Amino acid sequence: MKKDQSISSMKRKKRAGTIVSYAVLILISIIWLFPFVGLALQSFRSYDPKVEYGGMVDYIVPKHFSLDNYRFLFSGQTNYIRWYGNTLIIAFFVALFQTIVILCVSYALSRMRFKGRTLLMRFWLILGMFPGFLTMICLYFLLKQFGLTQAGAVPGLILVAVASSGMGYYVCKGYFDTIPKALDEAARIDGASRSRVFLTMIIPMSKPIIIYTALVAFMAPWCDYIFASYIAFGHDKSYNVAVAMTRWVWTNDYQAYFTRFCAGGILIAIPVTVLFMALQNYYVEGVTGGAVKG
Q1: Are 80 and 73 in contact (CB under 8 A)?
Q2: How far is CA 275 from CA 33, 97, 109, 164, 208, in A?
């Protein structure tokens, strides 16, 4: 009898703990989602200077929903399509080339042993702790010599992002370290070169870390503002979406452009959200697989 009561009491405590956990998670989700919901609602507000807003609810929830802000983005009154295209081009090529460079560097550091290897890895780790914008002035003048600023800002931003990508080897190398080296040795005995082992054996087994690396590389330039605004300064057609829309809210007509800013923000968030939702299992597997001591 006492045993049954004890089991019943444990079940009640477990149920109560589950209810509290879900309640806390729901509350955190509401707090986390509130800004995004507000951004989405504002994107459907049609600004009218004659309308008076009476409180927070009036500011957040439009009285009349409209697609005027989205129509404005594609109306030809702005270069939003050009900015969106610039952002997409930069993010795509950075993701492609960064992934290739990081995979090659990580494989070399994981499988090969050469003089100065450990020192090189430690140096890169320490160097990676310094923020990239410390080199902005030097990089700007260097890119300017090659015509890769302002009108040439798009290829300039791709070059800068890819040039230092090898220092992001750590997670990918950790994943390669989990793949048994005996596979490489068996292939080498059969006469396969290192490049053949890498391309035909290691790469097919490394899908999670490849997707993780590509996603991280894609998201960085997609949201870049500081360096993009510095390199493309003053040349409207070379802006990415982050730089261009920030300049919208700097205008004197702040209230009108703010709702357009929200609409542009919703559209720029869609590709990253879709990619992450579709590939999140591989993303998590890549992070956990690479989180080992190399």
Answers
A1: yes
A2: 19, 18, 29, 24, 14
| Across 2-11, 82-91, 158-167, 183-192, least confident range | 2-11
Question: Could you tell me the two tokens for 242?
Answer: 């982050």
Q: Is the confidence at residue 284, as pLDDT, over 80?
A: no
**Per-residue model confidence as pLDDT tens digits over 96-124:** 999 999 999 998 888 888 888 888 888 88
Q: What is the dihedral of CA 39, 44, 47, 48, to 10 degrees?
A: -140
- Name 60's Cβ contacts closer than 8 Å, sequence gap at least 6: 38, 41, 42
Q: Closest Cα to residue 73, out of 206, 290, 259, 284? A: 259
Q: For residues 287 and 290, give the distance between their C-alpha atoms in angstroms, rounded to a whole number.
A: 5
For 131-152, what is the mean pLDDT?
85
- Spatial contact of 72 and 260, defined as CB atoms under 8 Å apart: yes
> Half-sphere exposure (CA, 13 Å, Cβ side) for 267?
25
Mean pLDDT of the chain: 82
Per-residue HEC secondary structure of 98-136 comes to HHHHHHHHHHHHHHCCCCCHHHHHHHHHHHHCCCHHHHH
- Alpha-carbon span 38 to 44, nearest angstrom: 10
> Could you give the domains of the chain?
2-68 (no CATH), 80-290 (1.10.3720.10)
Query: What span, in angstroms and rounded, lies between the C-alpha atoms of 85 and 66?
Result: 25
Q: Are 208 and 289 in contact (CB under 8 A)?
A: yes
Alpha helices in the chain (DSSP H): 2-43, 56-60, 68-73, 80-111, 117-128, 136-145, 153-163, 170-177, 181-189, 194-197, 207-222, 226-231, 241-248, 254-290
Residue with the two structure tokens 């452009």? 257
